[in-house]
């Protein structure tokens, strides 16, 4: 198909999803909910082999196939090969969820280039290369597909001490928009999910329901649950979301609405320290 052809509107992609960083948190919850909805699932992990095995067990408990690969996105070119390996083992790919990520907690003036590049390699370069691998397979097969990038509220809102993370997540949003335009001819939609604070190991919390009232500065008064984010991802992965592309869906409990309101409530400059 060339760029002058009419866009593909059918959605006949395989019920096979690949989810990066699915050993815990949002990735794990997404793997389980997609398995509940009839998807075979390929997952990747970086260090937590036991966590990945636990996710695979929960997927298989739903009667679905699961394949697992380790990948290290600090070497994104090599790591992206896991997408092809998982697709070969499972018989294709209809949905890719770019969920794996890392962060930083150092002011930009104190950061060396290697630290800057390591965050962007994982959060932006790796997502691009995984999306490219999956999209090539989807376009060659025909029938459409779904690419969903898990970003953060920081694709839109800055945070002191998180310069490369914010830059990567903002870049990932724009990457999704360009991909949405370029892949629309193949019936492939590309969107981002932008979570706020979610109770997961990545935010220093356990994979358990967050406590109501524990975040009085948030409109809904608590962190999010990984399963709430997974539900939003599952919506975008579904054929019924075929007219949603290039969008950012914020799952943040209203956190992003609090800018001027929260700033006016601060009584010190401690926020400058991150």
Fold and architecture overview:
With 274 residues, the chain is an alpha/beta fold. It has a single domain, classed as NAD(P)-binding Rossmann-like Domain (Rossmann fold). It is 39% helix and 14% strand. The chain is built from eight helices and seven strands; from the N terminus they run E-H-E-H-E-H-H-E-H-E-H-E-H-E-H. The protein has helices at 25-36, 49-61, 76-79, 81-90, 113-141, 163-183, 226-237, 259-265; strands at 16-19, 40-45, 66-70, 95-98, 145-150, 188-195, 248-251. The protein has a seven-stranded parallel beta sheet, with helices on both faces. Helix 1 (25-36) links the parallel strand 1 (16-19) and strand 2. The chain is globular and about 55 Å long.
State the total count of DSSP E strands: 7
Distance between the termini: 49 Å
Low-confidence stretches: none
Helix content: 25-40%
